[in-house]
Amino acid sequence: MNWRFSELGWRLLPGGIAALAIAALLKLGVLQPAEQLAYTALFQARGEVPWDDRLVLVAIDDGTLKRLGRFPFSRKYYAQLVDRLDTAGASVVALDVLFSEQTPEDQGLAQAMVRSGRVVLAQADEQIEFPLLPVPQLYDAALAAGHTRAVMDADGIVRKLDPQFQNNIAFGLAAIDAYALAHAAIPSVDRRQPMWLNWSGSVTHLRRYSFADVVQGRVNDRVFRNKIVIVGATAAGLDPLRTPFNLNVPASGVHLQATLIHNVLQNNILQPVRSTWVLLVLGGPLLSLILSFWRTEIQALIAFGSTLGWGGVSLLLLKFNYLIPVAFPIGLIVSTTILVVLTERLRMNAMLQQQVRQLWQRYESDLVISPPDLREPPPLPPTSLASMQRVTQLAALAERFGRSQSTQAAIARNLSMGLAAADFDGLVWFCNPTAATLLKLEIGSRLEIELVPHWLSDAEWQDALTTLQSEKSARPKERLLGTRWYCLGLEPLTYQTHAALDPPSAHDALPPDGGSHFRLDGILLLLEDISDRKKIEASLDQQIDELHQMSQLKDDFLSTVSHELRTPLTNMKMAIQLLKMVGTEAQRDHYLQILDNECTRETELINDLLDLQRLEVGGQVLRPEHIDLRTWLPELIEPFYKRTEARRQALTVRVDEDLPDIECDRSSLERVIVELVNNACKYTPPEGEILVTADMVDPDFKVMVCNSGVEIPEEELSRVFDRFYRVPKADPWKQGGTGLGLALVKRLVECLNGKIQVSSGGGWTTFIVNLPADEV
């Protein structure tokens, strides 16, 4: 009976210790970060649930700040918003904005709130003795007010809210109470305890509209009818807040109140289940008792299954709005399992010492070689465990039989390549499947027959043997077999022994003291597939060639730029010298005009070079804006009409009447079109035609610039977008240019995520620009 109680105590002991340790960690709060991580993981595993369709968010977002000004902006916009929502039939307008300071616009906002009669205001209660209320005029005009106090945990997530604080109701509950005045009763919730939030999903999935869009009448009234409309800041940097679904891109404080409203409407506020001490007192010892009846592998499976099971139960209960602890139960499972295994190992270690002592006493006399130093275990460092002495005795007993197993273990660790072992006569006594396949080897075959002459020449084989006998590695050889490259290496196979146990041979290297020595035991062949390395080397060679080509292109570019920059300077210098010798006013004006033209040319060249460099290094900053192409494009082309009339050219602009508005960087698009039209004007002869069109070719927006006249040879089309390139014999009128215009156009189009094409034939040259159509 005493033995039974003692055995039961050993089985329950690990679980009891684990329970006490977990209890201490809970008391110290050490497990709180893990519980918070588990909380977030549970919500992410559960997935998102739809937001209540009775809830709508009007967001003071970045777009609103761009259009209405810095935050906080004028309260006249709030008055306009309240009137707009009142007209739309909103049930409640909850303004999650603090109006704690008086402004001249308060009168208008208060009147709008009185007309609506459904406005709820926010008040601050954060770490202050008295609440920070809205200004009296607005406070009196509001239907209700509520506090926005929220306490974040260490990870930045708010998990629960106080429904009452300093006799003030929570802002979200105030909005719910106002909504209940005009609608069916809302399910009641316990407002005496903190409310645990049941996050529904990413805040981006909450139905939301921009504050500016609502004020400016761009949102249909139907979306607000009979809805709770909550208004708050979501712009970057304003009241940021993390949620289980918004960790990297934070949400805002208004989403916290929206979640509270959603939870009350859906009656799905979390109910925490707290049975910590019952689980600790019963769970740890009970699990320890169960694990003690199984071997280690089954114990690990039970622990793994218990962990998954608890996680699954936690997730299932979360779906039914119950929250149970996750981290400490899993910690209890893991720690109990570890302690059970450790306890068994300690008990097994004690048994092992006893068994080794008995084995040594029984089999010591049967050793073939029994020198004095093996009769007792060798001296160990003072820090070694006493049990290791008996293990050392057992190892000494098996040393004579472990040499071959050590060699095979070394070979097994390198099975990613072809391996074979042979003696110095070439007799193979081990080879892995890779070596057997590639070298046609098998146990008992001769290594030399398979290697010579397919892999090594006879001279190379003999040189390798000589090197190996001196206990040095042979030089690796690279060989091509079919389409694959292989590296063949030969290593000396040695093992360390003691002179007293294994007398040295002629090939052994003896130390000065005559103690342990290395014995040369054979040849280890290593065959590695290096095809991938060869491909990388070939790729590196190719990249080096490309770098040389880029260097040559750079030199050519610098040469061209220096020439292009020097030419206007030379002309300016000549004009200045001629100015000194002018005799008439007309000549003076002529040379001044030359100076002006060359200065303009130099400036344009430098500006084009700077613009092109900025585009190529990614320094172009895009500022997308709303563009009505039906009016903007004709206005852009208007200045070219006088130029074409002076040259007797016909310029036509066609814009599709059904072309939608787009969002694009206006300056970049303008530069592209102006450069293409300017290019068309240069190379169109008198009586020629220039056509500019804009239409939609789903899914792209397409601009086409065509001009009649000189065609571009087909072999030159691929180079028209190169810097400083001019098509030979394509400028009969000698109008010149920097040669950078089309290069700039191509870079700008690519910066706009578009494509540009050029074609020439039938007396026409056509440039087509396709840009993504981000319709408004």
Automatic annotation (TrEMBL):
<keyword id="KW-0597">Phosphoprotein</keyword>
<dbReference type="GO" id="GO:0000155">
    <property type="term" value="F:phosphorelay sensor kinase activity"/>
</dbReference>
<keyword id="KW-1133">Transmembrane helix</keyword>
<feature type="transmembrane region" description="Helical">
    <location>
        <begin position="276"/>
        <end position="294"/>
    </location>
</feature>
<feature type="transmembrane region" description="Helical">
    <location>
        <begin position="301"/>
        <end position="318"/>
    </location>
</feature>
<keyword id="KW-0808">Transferase</keyword>
<feature type="transmembrane region" description="Helical">
    <location>
        <begin position="324"/>
        <end position="342"/>
    </location>
</feature>
<dbReference type="InterPro" id="IPR036097">
    <property type="entry name" value="HisK_dim/P_sf"/>
</dbReference>
<feature type="transmembrane region" description="Helical">
    <location>
        <begin position="12"/>
        <end position="31"/>
    </location>
</feature>
<dbReference type="InterPro" id="IPR004358">
    <property type="entry name" value="Sig_transdc_His_kin-like_C"/>
</dbReference>
<dbReference type="InterPro" id="IPR017181">
    <property type="entry name" value="Sig_transdc_His_kin_CHASE2"/>
</dbReference>
<dbReference type="InterPro" id="IPR003594">
    <property type="entry name" value="HATPase_dom"/>
</dbReference>
<dbReference type="InterPro" id="IPR036890">
    <property type="entry name" value="HATPase_C_sf"/>
</dbReference>
<dbReference type="InterPro" id="IPR005467">
    <property type="entry name" value="His_kinase_dom"/>
</dbReference>
<keyword id="KW-0902">Two-component regulatory system</keyword>
<keyword id="KW-0472">Membrane</keyword>
<keyword id="KW-0812">Transmembrane</keyword>
<protein>
    <recommendedName>
        <fullName>histidine kinase</fullName>
        <ecNumber>2.7.13.3</ecNumber>
    </recommendedName>
</protein>
<dbReference type="Pfam" id="PF00512">
    <property type="entry name" value="HisKA"/>
</dbReference>
<keyword id="KW-0418">Kinase</keyword>
<dbReference type="InterPro" id="IPR003661">
    <property type="entry name" value="HisK_dim/P_dom"/>
</dbReference>
<feature type="domain" description="Histidine kinase">
    <location>
        <begin position="560"/>
        <end position="775"/>
    </location>
</feature>
<dbReference type="InterPro" id="IPR007890">
    <property type="entry name" value="CHASE2"/>
</dbReference>
<dbReference type="Pfam" id="PF02518">
    <property type="entry name" value="HATPase_c"/>
</dbReference>
<dbReference type="Pfam" id="PF05226">
    <property type="entry name" value="CHASE2"/>
</dbReference>
